[in-house]
Design brief:
heterodimer; A: about 100 residues; mainly alpha; 4 helices; B: alpha+beta; four-stranded mixed sheet; about 35% strand
Chain lengths: ~100, ~210
């Protein structure tokens, strides 16, 4: 887990920060999605289908959190297999344009 | 990587040097970002005395005649320096972090008070990051801005909503993570104790956490 440790204030009106990573717990990572995914046909259908397949237990909030966690995994796979890497497709399109210019 | 960050308000004489040297060696600090060195130029001799020995690499940004000046230093065996890039308000150092074997970029940030200049700085940092192949990033320094009203106490003047929004947009759009803060909630205190804020911080890319 990486944290910023605020030190005792001694030689300035600011406190020093010590950035340290201890053990292997990386802490919570935010759930993120890319706007361009929403424009892709089949995306919302995929999400809906996957979402329905998840089962949760416990309080409503915990179920939501667990389902988002599962969705994150499926989104990662979908992004890689179906959507493709935006940067590399952009690069290859730019290369195509470059070739056409010749 | 173990990083030490401080707005030092002048490198000063012996006291500040002793204070930092002790801290660097006890904590085995690998990289140091200092803001407000209050000097246009520093010498090797000054750096060696701050660090404790000569096994140190460094880049100093003298600002304008020492105003807005800041300094990055690193342990030469912990961080194999490759290149740097510098602009108004930032020093970016690219190198290999030996312990993790990863190439990374540590950006020392010292933002101006002025809202417009800050916005330019966020844009410059964003385009620098976008143009780079590096995935492991750490931005640390005195950003002179907060992320929410609760991070500032005792300052009534003005409305900070615009700079708060700009800063949050910068963090969001560059996919940076704000590491949890421990020990204290604020990093800056007015001498008479009437005001405090959290204007110093560390932002990292998700890849940073994997090392």
């Amino acid at each position: 887990m990486c944290k910023q440790y605020v030190q005792r204030r001694e030689v300035s009106d600011h406190c020093a920060l010590m950035i340290k990573c201890v053990d292997k717990d990386y802490g919570p990572k935010p759930f993120r999605s890319i706007d361009a995914w929403l424009l892709e046909t089949g995306f919302s259908g995929m999400v809906e289908e996957e979402w329905r397949s998840y089962e949760g237990q416990g309080s409503v909030l915990k179920v939501l959190k667990d389902k988002l966690k599962l969705l994150k995994v499926d989104l990662k796979i979908w992004n890689k297999d179906v959507f493709g890497n935006l940067n590399s497709s952009k690069q290859s399109l730019l290369q195509d344009m470059e070739n056409l210019d010749f | 990587m173990k990083i030490y960050n401080l707005n030092i308000r002048g490198l000063g004489g012996g006291t500040k040097g002793r204070y930092m040297r002790r801290c660097f060696s006890v904590e085995e600090v690998e990289f140091v970002c200092l803001q407000e060195t209050k000097t246009a130029e520093v010498t090797d001799a000054k750096i060696f005395s701050l660090w404790g020995d000569n096994n140190v690499g460094w880049i100093h940004n003298g600002g304008i005649n020492g105003s807005g000046s800041f300094l990055s230093m690193w342990h030469r065996e912990a961080f194999i320096f490759e290149s740097h890039s510098m602009g108004k308000g930032y020093i970016a150092d690219v190198g290999i972090h030996v312990r993790s074997g990863q190439r990374c970029c540590v950006v020392n940030v010292y933002a101006a008070c002025n809202l417009k200049e800050k916005k330019i700085l966020w844009e410059e940092l964003a385009s620098y990051k976008a143009a780079s192949q590096i995935e492991v990033w750490c931005f640390c320094g005195d950003f002179d801005v907060i992320r929410s009203r609760s991070e500032r106490k005792g300052v009534d003047r003005g409305d900070f909503s615009s700079e708060i929004k700009d800063f949050n947009d910068f963090i969001e759009s560059n996919l940076l993570l704000d590491l949890p803060i421990v020990e204290k909630k604020y990093t800056w205190f007015k001498a008479n104790g009437t005001a405090k804020s959290r204007i110093d911080r560390v932002l990292v890319s998700e890849e940073w956490l994997q090392k």
